[in-house]
DNA sequence: CGCCGACTTGATTAGATTCAAACTATGTGG
DNA sequence: CCACATAGTTTGAATCTAATCAAGTCGGCG
């Protein structure tokens, strides 16, 4: 049985696109929403099927992937906790969305949501800004994929996670030793960074040996000096 | 002296974002517009400076680049003829825009244009759809940069150009031998594809030797069998 | 206990980069 | 008009980074 959503107690109420809505608009949105849990490894939606929907990610990580006929795969986007999932204004969604971990979603049926987009300019505007940010991120990643070395790629990814302090709990001071869990397997990291599993593993141990990171377990990372990590990451780690 | 724009005779009137506008709205937009010519190699706008504007590209090619401190560069977007140039709703533009060829622009001052965006939902919506398409393209390119071989990268790029039948003149039948000019130097192709100049050159001669393309000159290409090119390009050349 | 998936490590190979040189087209000044 | 400079391009040889192939280790779970 679908859970009734309670926006008032929603963990992403303010940070998600809902933050752009006035009370009555939020109510209309909540009317069409429905929470769903999706276990790790399951398909959220395929680039093939038509049963499409939009969603806010409440917890967990969703990966958007592109696959070539021969099986080569690239993760083209990671969707974390307050982020929005779905491609508006397109008949067929061009990505394959898969749960990288157990995921909680707040789902909106495709047509109902798009009609709300029409009715609420502030919602559309928020989604627009969202999309612009995604585009910036995608282009940043193009620099990584096209020009960075394996070591820089790994460091960039870890630095990205450290900044998002992807912890689900303990908040960190600015630029203090960060501790976070890797939301992806080695295989997924490889697909995100344009590498192989083996190279990912080797570069991680290299960073460990160099003292840039500590690995509590294969998934649990600690970064004693985030500036050092940023330096290894190569670029624009200077700003931001 | 700035040329007075005449939307009625504009080559991109319908295809550009202007196509979303009603007559009176178009008039308001044309009031703030101003045509500019920018010679090849010149900076259109920098990721540093604040003197920003938006523009429709009337002719020529603009490249959006990201550069690392040590000089490594990646082209993260190519802006062709009816496309729109500029990043809305952001104080500082994150890309460096440079004319890859002589370029004609129809420019709009930053603030005036953003206020029009507020006033004309249809304009904002058009720009939103535009941005979604750019995001799709960026992610498609992520697959190329992360997973394709040098040969597939080159073939994909040529196939992209063939589809856009980037000719400035002779229109081509669907899926018939295409002839087009490369809008980029070898160095720029390398920066777009995440390769070196030498590899680009080698792969081009390889495609030439295999009979996939003919090279009338170093810039003028002919594709006898676009399906064969698509096959070499690797992926999703099947659709579209 | 032993299986299984995720991860690590080692040896070898291949594809692309790097370094180096030469070729082509275009434009300039003597 | 030709010699020469220059930017863009091609080609060759050597090198290196990351991929591939191949074992092995770790950790959880039936």
Structure write-up:
The structure is a homodimer of 240-residue chains. Chain A is an alpha+beta fold and 240 residues long. Chain A folds into two domains: 7-142, Jelly Rolls (Sandwich), CATH 2.60.120; 148-233, Orthogonal Bundle (Arc Repressor Mutant, subunit A), CATH 1.10.10. Helix content of chain A is 38%, strand content 21%. Chain A has helices at 23-32, 110-119, 121-147, 150-163, 186-193, 197-209, 226-233, and strands at 34-38, 43-45, 53-59, 62-67, 73-79, 84-85, 96-99, 103-109, 178-181, 214-215, 220-223. In chain A, strands 1-8-3-6 form a four-stranded antiparallel β-sheet. In chain A, strands 2-7-4-5 form a four-stranded antiparallel β-sheet. The first copy, chain A, has a three-stranded antiparallel β-sheet with strand order 9-11-10, with no helix packed on it. In chain A, helix 4 crosses helix 6 and helix 5 (186-193) crosses helix 6. The longest helix of chain A is centred in the middle third of the chain and has 27 residues, at 121-147. The first copy, chain A, is globular and about 55 Å long. Chain A binds a DNA duplex (30 and 30 nucleotides) through helix 6.
């Amino acid at each position: 049985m679908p859970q009734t959503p309670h926006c008032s107690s929603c963990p992403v109420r303010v940070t998600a696109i809902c933050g752009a809505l006035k009370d009555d608009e939020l109510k209309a949105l909540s009317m069409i929403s429905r929470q769903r849990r999706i276990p790790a490894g399951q398909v959220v939606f395929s680039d093939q099927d038509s049963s499409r929907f939009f969603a806010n990610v409440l917890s967990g990580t969703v990966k958007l992937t592109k696959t070539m006929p021969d099986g080569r795969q690239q993760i083209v986007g990671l969707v974390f906790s307050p982020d929005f999932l779905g491609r508006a204004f397109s008949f067929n969604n061009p990505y394959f969305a898969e749960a990288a971990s157990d995921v909680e979603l707040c789902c909106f049926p495709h047509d109902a949501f798009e009609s709300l987009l029409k009715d609420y300019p502030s919602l559309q505007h928020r989604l627009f800004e969202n999309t612009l940010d995604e585009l910036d991120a995608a282009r940043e990643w193009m620099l990584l994929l096209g020009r960075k070395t394996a070591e820089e790629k790994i460091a960039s990814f870890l630095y990205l996670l450290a900044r998002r302090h992807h912890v689900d709990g303990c908040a960190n001071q600015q630029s203090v030793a960060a501790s976070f869990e890797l939301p992806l397997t080695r295989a997924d990291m490889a697909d995100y960074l344009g590498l192989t599993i083996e190279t990912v593993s080797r570069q991680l141990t290299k960073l460990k040996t160099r003292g840039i990171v500590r690995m509590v377990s294969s998934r649990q990372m600690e970064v004693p000096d985030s500036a050092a990590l940023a330096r290894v990451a190569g670029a624009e780690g200077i700003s931001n």
